[in-house]
Amino acid sequence: MDRYLILAQPAWLLLLAHGLAGPPSNANHRCGGSLGFLALRLLLLGSLLYGDYHLLRSPPKIQKEDWRAVAAYLNTHAKDDELILLRSAQIAIPFHTYPLEPRVSIWETNRMARPFADLASPYPGVWLVYWNAVGKTHVVLHEWVHPVRFEQVWGSAPLSRQWQQSPMFFLQERVDFPGVTVFHLIRRK
User: Fold this and answer.
1) What is the C-alpha separation between 10 and 6, in angstroms, rounded?
2) Which pLDDT score, from 0 to 100, does residue 144 have?
3) Are residues 35 and 121 in the same domain?
4) Are residues 45 and 73 in the same domain?
5) Residue (of 132, 168, 175) closest to 153 by Cα position
6) pLDDT reported for residue 153
7) Mean of all residue pLDDT scores within the chain
8) Do residue 90 and residue 181 come from a single domain?
9) Same domain for 160 and 93
10) 119 Cβ contact list (under 8 Å, min separation 6)
11) 50 and 75 part of one domain
């Protein structure tokens, strides 16, 4: 929806400027007359067309979170007896679209009722899905993204430190997607 508003905005603003100009009157002549409003319209049109040109012609600088790739990865790599935990309830919404819903549990550090040891004890492995683990709202061009150490993401909340220090599990792998990071934890033998 946003992209349609961005593309339609120049025409809407030109229509608004034309309505403000209206028929010539005394107030119109005090503001520079019709020539002043024409210059304002041309300046407005030029700046908006310049912005639209760069929107359509330049490479995208913002990427959405790649939930489809995360769901596909979890479908192919997560075993049926492993738990998939979402770091926050907000990211459960995209998974309603993909066939992971029966296997997904939501774990919020702010509202966690059970410690990690109790939550993960029946499972041989746990997949933790972190939204924006790199601390950005969106991933901006890959060459601009600085790698973030696991400990910086992991230990950001006091209760999530339990996961890092858990004697039961160790980090098997970390997979980064645009805007999403997936951690795979395996039970120690």
Assistant:
1) 8
2) 38
3) no
4) no
5) 132
6) 47
7) 69
8) yes
9) yes
10) 83, 85, 107, 112
11) no
One domain for residues 85 and 176: yes
- Mapped onto helix, strand or coil, the DSSP state of residue 129 is strand
Residues 6+ apart with CB under 8 A from 126: 82, 83, 84, 85, 120, 169, 184, 185
- Of 12-16, 121-125, 173-177, the range with the lowest mean pLDDT is 12-16
What global pTM score does this model have?
0.55
Tally the domains of the chain: 2
Q: Is the pLDDT of residue 129 over 60?
A: yes
Q: Are residues 100 and 152 in the same domain?
A: yes
Rg (CA), the chain: 26
Q: Is the pLDDT of residue 176 over 60?
A: yes
**Alpha helices for the chain (secondary structure H):** 2-21, 26-30, 33-57, 67-77, 92-95, 116-120, 150-154, 161-165
Task: Pick the last residue of a domain from 42, 57, 72.
Answer: 57
Domain boundary residue, one of 12, 35, 57: 57
Q: What is the pLDDT of residue 113?
A: 54
Q: Which residue has the tokens 């309603």?
A: 96
- Which domain range does residue 156 map to? 62-187
How far are the Cα atoms of 21, 31, 139 from residue 27, in angstroms, in the given order? 10, 7, 49
